[in-house]
Design brief:
With 413 residues, the chain is of the alpha/beta class. The chain has 20 helices and 15 strands. The structure holds beta-D-galactopyranose.
Length: 413
C-alpha cells in the first residue's frame, strides 16, 4: 500500500525543460506496429531533444500481455526498467505493491489536476498521489471500413448490427473478406465489449464494471454471444494468430471490408500515408453512439535509484506537455489525455471522439475498457477474456457461454 519513494522537489520547471545533465531512460513498451512505432519515435525524439537519452525495450504483442510478462520478470529479477507503459488497472497493481515513484511535484508544476479528466486521474493517482503520466485516451469500439469496397458496392457504414451483417453479406458476395479479425484473445475481447456496450450502456455497467452475477446471466449477455457467433461467420479461415495490425492492413489494402478494433488501427492508416475518414472510413461500433469506452496508456516510473530521478521527471514532463500530446496523438490514433489540446489538427474520427467523450461524460456513459485494462483487475479481466475466446473458437452455445462467463467471473472475484 505504500509508495516506496518520493521524488525530491526539483529546482523549477525550467530545469525540466533544459536539464543540465545528460541522462537516459530505459522504456519498456509494446508499441511495435507501424503506427505505434511512429508514435513512440515522437516521444523518443522529444526527450532526446531535451538531453535525455532513450534506451528502447520494446516487447511485441498487441494489447501488452507479453510486455507485462516481461515487466514482471524484470522486476522480480531486481532489474526494473526506468519507465514502463501500462494500462490503468496495472498502474494500480504496481502502485499497490509499492514499486512506483511519486510524480506529485512534476504534476503540480505542470497542473495535471486541472487538465486531466477525473476518469483518467482515477487510474493515474494512487492514494491521492500521481504515480503515472497519462499520454492519451484510446477508444476501442470502432468499425473501420475500406472506402474502396464501400463505394464500389454502394454501402454505408453500419449503425446497427442488422446493417453490419447486411453489409458483410454484400462484401462477402463480392469476393472480399467481410470482417478482418486477428486471432488473439484480447482482440476477441475487444469486439465482445463493443457488442455489450452496443446492446446497452447499462448492460456494460452491470455485467462488466459491476461484474454482477444476474447481469452476466441475463438475456443481454446471451444476445452478445449470439452476435459474436454471427461475426465469426464473416471472418476468413486464416485468422488464427493474426496480429491486429495485419487485420488493419487488410482493410487498408482493400482486401477486407471492415475491422472492429480500437483507434490504434487509425495509427496504421496514418502511418500508411492515408487519411482516416477518407480512404479508411470510421464509425463507432453498432449501438455505441453516445457512449464511450476508454483506455489510457500511462508511463509509470520505477524506483531505480536517485540518479535517474531527473531523467524520469523529464520524461513525465515531456509526455504531458500540450505540444507533445498533440504530436503524439496525431500519430497514435488516440485523443490527448489533456483536455486543453486544440482539436483542429485532428482527423474527423478523432474529432468525433472528442465530441463523444464530452457527451458520454455528461450522460454518465463513459466507462473503462475491460479488454484494455480499465474495467476489472487483471485476474477478473482474464476470466472474461477466457470465456469470450473459448466461445468464439468453438461451437459453444450463447446460453452456455453466458453461464460459463458468470461462473468464471464469480470464481475470480
Ligand atoms: C492497447 C494500447 C494501445 C495499443 C493497443 C494495441 O492496449 O492501449 O496503445 O497499442 O493496445 O497494441
Amino acid at each position: 500500500m505504500k509508495l516506496t519513494k518520493t521524488f525530491a522537489v526539483l529546482a523549477c520547471t525550467s530545469a525540466l525543460a533544459a536539464p543540465a545533465i545528460a541522462d537516459e531512460v530505459e522504456v519498456l513498451h509494446w508499441w511495435t506496429s507501424g503506427g505505434e512505432a511512429a508514435a513512440v519515435s515522437v516521444l523518443k525524439s522529444d526527450l532526446e531533444g531535451k538531453g535525455t537519452g532513450w534506451v528502447d525495450m520494446a516487447v511485441a504483442g498487441g494489447g501488452g500481455d507479453a510486455a507485462m510478462t516481461t515487466l514482471r520478470a524484470r522486476v522480480t529479477a531486481g532489474d526494473p526498467p526506468t519507465a514502463a507503459q501500462m494500462l490503468g488497472m496495472t498502474v494500480r497493481e504496481w502502485a499497490d505493491e509499492g514499486f512506483l515513484g511519486n510524480l506529485n511535484d512534476v504534476a503540480a508544476a505542470e497542473g495535471w489536476d486541472d487538465v486531466i479528466p477525473p476518469a483518467v486521474q482515477a487510474f493515474g493517482k494512487y492514494d491521492g498521489n500521481w504515480v503515472a503520466a497519462p499520454v492519451n485516451m484510446h477508444r476501442p469500439h470502432w468499425v473501420w471500413g475500406s472506402a474502396k469496397i464501400f463505394s464500389e458496392l454502394g454501402l454505408e457504414m453500419p449503425s446497427t448490427w442488422d446493417e453490419f451483417f447486411a453489409a458483410a453479406d454484400k462484401i462477402q458476395e463480392a469476393g472480399y473478406v467481410a470482417v478482418a479479425q486477428g486471432g488473439q484473445a484480447w482482440q476477441e475481447a475487444t469486439v465482445w465489449e463493443a457488442v455489450v456496450l452496443g446492446i446497452s450502456p447499462d448492460l456494460y455497467r452491470t455485467a462488466i464494471i459491476e461484474a454482477d452475477d444476474a447481469a452476466l446471466r441475463s438475456e443481454g449477455i446471451v444476445e452478445s454471444f449470439e452476435i459474436m457467433r454471427k461475426i465469426r461467420g464473416y471472418v476468413d479461415p486464416n485468422f488464427a494468430g493474426r496480429d491486429w495490425n495485419l487485420a488493419t492492413a487488410m482493410v487498408i489494402n482493400g482486401e477486407a471490408g471492415m475491422q472492429i478494433m480500437g483507434d490504434w488501427a487509425k495509427g496504421e492508416v496514418i502511418a500508411a500515408g492515408l487519411t482516416p475518414g477518407v480512404e479508411v472510413l470510421c464509425d463507432v461500433a453498432p449501438g455505441t453512439q453516445g457512449s464511450f469506452l476508454f483506455n489510457t496508456d500511462f508511463f509509470a516510473m520505477f524506483d531505480v535509484g536517485d540518479d535517474k530521478q531527473m531523467a524520469q521527471q523529464n520524461m513525465a514532463a515531456s509526455a504531458m506537455s500540450v505540444n507533445f500530446q498533440e504530436t503524439f496523438n496525431l500519430a497514435k490514433g488516440s485523443i490527448p489525455a489533456r483536455t486543453d489540446v486544440p482539436g483542429d489538427k485532428f482527423d474527423v474520427c478523432a474529432q468525433k471522439s472528442m465530441a463523444d467523450l464530452a457527451e458520454a461524460t455528461a450522460s454518465n456513459t463513459l466507462f473503462g475498457s475491460l479488454a484494455h485494462g480499465h474495467g476489472q483487475p487483471a485476474a477478473i479481466q482474464a476470466a472474461y477474456t477466457d470465456v469470450v475466446t473459448q466461445h468464439f473458437n468453438s461451437d459453444m452455445s450463447a446460453e452456455d457461454a453466458a453461464a460459463a462467463l458468470a461462473d468464471a467471473v464469480m470464481a475470480a472475484k
